[in-house]
Design brief:
Elements lengths: L11 E2 L15 E5 L4 H11 L3 E6 L13 E2 L5 E2 H6 L3 E5 L5 H13 L2 E4 L5 H4 L4 H7 L4 E6 L14 H7 L20 H23 L5 E6 H6 L5 H8 L16 E6 L2 E6 L3 H10 L3 H4 L7 H4 L3 H12 L4 H10 L4 E3 L3 H6 L1 H5 L3 E6 L3 E6 L23 H7 L4 H9 L4
Parallel strand pairs: 1-13, 2-3, 2-7, 3-6, 7-8, 8-9
Antiparallel strand pairs: 4-5, 10-11, 11-12, 13-14
Helix pairs in contact: 1-7, 6-7
């Protein structure tokens, strides 16, 4: 299936004969055991680049994400988020508490390159599906384990969601304005960051297995540690100076100028923090005195005069519209941009040229816009082969591939194993 090049293009039906796997991960087999965000997002990335992803779901309702946020149809439908989070995955329903269900998972894991799970630590082991058990049959297996606090430590058994990880990992403490409580970011960023770490770890482990002659292994991703890994210089700053970075609103602390500034009709973001860009910015706004001030030639000299510099920029912008300001700043080669809503993304020429929003027909019912697969590859690009599947849509197909006959599959269904 070929995705439409822009939101205005004709819709395409996802799936069918054209859904053959391609991409840099074609041939890699992934088994997803998990729900909601972190584990499924990691598996989604594998599927977008050609891996064969089998998602195990509870026969009684499946992944709760199927009912999160806006649904189609609105009454009793399926989450539009599901269309993208589960694209390119095969949905297989399995009751993990049934012995026959566990056997199905073990057989799938025996053929898998990667198992991704985000249950609370210890649950898979109690079910007889821990790494030690699965690796006996498949020594090359890579298992990505995503959890709130990791597989070890005193917090191991606590429930941990992305919001808690963002708090413990330090992100919430430095986000927002100093006179207000820390806000949350409007997406599940903690889960997504952890998922990216899981994918990176899995690919490293596969490289070690395939190229260095190593065995399989466990990739242990704690959500709070994934967030903590993004915290830039806060650790050495505290370790050397005892400095605790605090909330600074829209500015980037210690890097000047980098802030959000009001214009007549809204706000823009300006990143003028490199030395040559700062000079070009000051000249563009008519402040040659600041551009030529030797004390401001480097960032460490600008930081003590942050208020003065931000004030000069704000004064210049206050008299201009966003479009007028951006025209001047773009001509001066200064990084600057408006703050986009999703509506802006649908019509922006850069988004359209890069085909970042693509239309698909979902379940023969509705045209749904999805974000394009990223990053872009010149030779082996990823893509959308089909959208989020119906619950258990691929159960029979996958079980037949394991050697189960029609009668046995019917018996498993009658016993509510699948």
């Amino acid at each position: 299936m070929s995705a439409a090049p822009s939101p205005e293009s004709a819709s395409a039906e996802a799936g069918g004969a054209a859904a053959r796997a391609s991409g840099p991960l074609a041939g890699v087999k992934v088994l997803e055991l998990g729900t909601l965000i972190a584990g499924p997002f990691a598996a989604r990335l594998f599927g977008e680049f050609g891996a064969d992803v089998i998602k195990i779901e509870d026969p009684k309702g499946g992944d709760p994400l199927r009912k999160w946020r806006k649904l189609w149809p609105e009454a009793g439908g399926t989450s539009l988020w599901w269309a993208v989070q589960a694209r390119n995955k095969k949905s297989v329903t399995v009751n993990l508490k049934a012995d026959e269900g566990k056997e199905i998972v073990r057989r799938l894991a025996k053929e898998a390159d990667v198992v991704i799970e985000n249950f609370r630590p210890g649950l898979l082991d109690k079910l007889g599906l821990g790494y030690d058990v699965l690796a006996k049959e498949n020594p090359g297996l890579v298992m990505v384990r995503l959890s709130g606090y990791g597989q070890t430590g005193p917090y191991r058994d606590r429930p941990g969601f992305g919001a808690i990880a963002e708090s413990m990992g330090g992100l919430r403490h430095i986000t927002g304005y100093p006179d207000q409580p820390p806000p949350r970011i409007g997406i599940s960023i903690g889960d997504s960051i952890a998922a990216l770490h899981g994918v990176i770890g899995a690919l490293m482990a596969l490289h070690h297995r395939n190229v260095n002659g190593g065995s399989g292994q466990v990739v242990d991703v704690a959500l709070y540690e994934a967030v903590f890994n993004m915290m830039e210089s806060v650790v050495p700053e505290y370790g050397v100076y005892g400095m605790v970075r605090e909330r600074t609103g829209a500015s980037l602390p210690g890097i000047v100028p980098s802030n959000t500034y009001p214009c007549r009709d809204g706000s823009i973001v300006i990143g003028g923090n490199s030395d040559p860009i700062f000079r070009r910015l000051m000249i563009a706004i008519g402040r040659d005195d600041l551009a030529n001030d030797p004390d401001l030639a480097h960032n460490d000299g600008r930081v003590p005069r942050t208020q003065e510099i931000d004030g000069a920029i704000a004064a210049w912008l206050a008299e201009r519209s966003i479009d007028d300001a951006l025209a001047v700043l773009n001509a001066a080669d200064v990084p600057a941009g408006r703050i986009y809503s999703v509506a802006d993304m649908f019509t922006d020429p850069q988004y359209v040229a890069r085909q970042m929003i693509q239309q698909f027909r979902w379940r023969g019912e509705v045209d749904v816009a999805l974000p394009a697969v990223t990053p872009k590859f010149s030779e082996t690009p990823g893509g959308t082969r089909w959208l989020g599947p119906e619950l258990g849509e691929h159960t029979d197909e996958v079980l037949r591939s394991l050697g189960y006959d029609v009668e046995y599959i019917a018996r498993l269904r009658a016993q509510q194993v699948i």
